[in-house]
Amino acid sequence: MQTVLFHSTIFGPVHSRRLGVSLGVNLTPDDGKICSFDCLYCEAGFNAQGPGTTGFPPRERVALLLESRLKKMSEAGEPLDVITFSGNGEPTLHPDFAGVIDDTLRLCGLYYPSAKVSVLSNSTRLDRPEVCEALLKVDNNILKLDSAVTATMRTIDRPGSPEFTSERVIPLLARFGENCIIQTMFLRGEYEGVNIDNTTSEEVDALIRAYREIRPSEIMIYSIDRKTPAENLEKVSHEELLAIAERIESETGITVKTA
Questions:
Q1: Which residues touch 86 (CB under 8 Å, ≥6 apart)?
Q2: How far apart are the first and last CA of the chain?
Q3: pTM to 2 decimals?
């Protein structure tokens, strides 16, 4: 089983193809995976590898580790564009996510006032007011919508809740409007006998309708860049992504970035 885990709470910095020089924060265990999705393309592997033993890092420890790293980087004159919450699962599952965000904003302002704070979220916790309030505080509130067709979304993302549908999440995303960035992974392939392709005209039509309803500040579209736990998935070419981006942008008026 593929497992590419971050074995620390603070990792990097790394160069993100979307965000620049990024210092990562992993709010899930450092020896396992906890996520409300079980995406076919997740570079951290499937949830079946287990949650590990270390649990969610306490808020106080996250702040301590983050400040230590930021202080060392600042004293060394190292550049930093963004602090990014990602890691071995869904960051908003952390029981004190809102408090961690407050600590991070304070520390970022202290050591790297020009850097931004980004959260990569799968959108499954947008029914929690405290999560939404925290997401509204960050610079880049990046929320996932891989398909506006529920059957396709559930095949690709495999949400843990049977109640999670595209019809349910799109209005929740729309509450953020320009205070969010929507991120969509395009891919095709096959898994357990089911064909997968969210690049078809019907799929892109549905996404365009959803983007129009949400009205985010920006749309990020991308495709597979690393080995995936589901083996029979295909990367969409950059040329095809550019064509999809041009169509989305022309029909929504929203800026689309490809990676």
A1: 24, 25, 26, 120
A2: 27
A3: 0.94
